[in-house]
Amino acid sequence: CLIRWSMGMIKASFVSDFFSYVRRTQQHQWRCSEVTFHCDNQALCEEWVQVTNEQLSLLTNRPKSLLVYINPFGGKRRGKRIYEQKVAPIFRLAGIATTVIVTERANHAEDHLKTEANLDKYDGVVCVGGDGMFSEVLHGLVARTQNDHGVDQNQPDAELVPCSLRIGIIPAGSTDCICFATVGTNDPVTSALHIVVGDSQPMDVCSVHHNDVFLRYSVSLLGYGFYGDVLSDSERNRWLGPARYDLAGVKTFLSHNYYEGTVTFLPAEDDVGNPRDKLQCRSSDVSEEKEKPGKDDSSDWNEIHGKFIAINAANMSCACPRSPKGLSPFAHLADGNADLILVRNCSRLDFFKHLLRHTNKDDQFDHPFVEVHRVRKFRFEPERHILVSLEDLSEPATKTGYSTPLGSWSCDGEILPEVAIQVR
Ligand SMILES: Nc1ncnc2c1ncn2[C@@H]1O[C@H](COP(=O)(O)OP(=O)(O)OP(=O)(O)O)[C@@H](O)[C@H]1O
Question: Which stretch is the leader sequence (predicted)?
């Protein structure tokens, strides 16, 4: 896969040109290599270069101009250095023009994309950071596209307009789950090479609403109970860096909370497989067939009431280096469905066994307290145990508080402000 010719140089009596190309190495990693062609005829050598450049210019999927956002504080705060040392030289070699914005605050990239950015100038947007940074860029781009087309995001059934720009991810965060699940590795050089050769991978995007109010989009994990609690706790210890997730994980596991509520879901069409069919996602294209509106009859909805330690909706495998097969190993990237995993209340030991299976080859769904469904839409309503104080018993019951905490949803690493949600 040629990137471009680099240089023609005359040495003694012969001419040589070297070409850069992408080489696949082990573990999904890509590297840039060079091959040198020698020739004693300068005119012929120049012809090679010209023909190669002509062929390359025909490849319209390769970006020529990119808008880059760098989060200097993501992960181990190496975003800027990673970009300057590993990524910018590759973009330069490929002849890509870049506008680089180092973010100065949270939501800087999102706000810039929503309002100021002149998107006509670019072939794509690149985020250097973690999943939170990717989510910012995604929200900025999707919101801008809907605003430009007059689509009201607050309408849960609104037909969203697809974004014309692609998003590239240079991993420089704490977990980088979205990069790992789409590229197969968290390696900035590999990601930069995927971007310059114009690789693309469609992804499902879920919209999350509370009544008729839009909350957020999700591309990886919507997690309630265990993962919501881990995120809430880890946010309080951001100063710890990536280690905050380990600490929060241990604390949340030890507190062993469960939450009561009702999950209602619309199952996926029969032809899209199921979360345990062991069919690896090989998707690189969303066909119109997959996007067709399916059955939406209220009789097709299933309802499950219970006490749950965790409710997870995985739009992709959610694989990361710690859990190489992810929360739902066979979730597809772009099939219009999510895998809904319900972990009912169980003993601490059983829950530990379930968690442990995310790190080995055993089937984490093979427990009596776990069920998993491939779904097109779902809703969650928490059970609200209303507290009525004794003095109020003479009065009609009023909502004075809740006897149990309601927990919170983690939506791609952000806490949602509501617990009762509708997801599509
Ligand atoms: N300049 C900035 N100052 C403070 N916060 C920022 C800045 N730029 C971006 N952010 C916010 O930082 C949050 C976390 O960033 P990011 O996702 O890059 O790193 P991370 O949280 O360490 O990694 P991961 O999300 O993979 O766990 C994002 O939600 C983003 O909104």
Answer: none
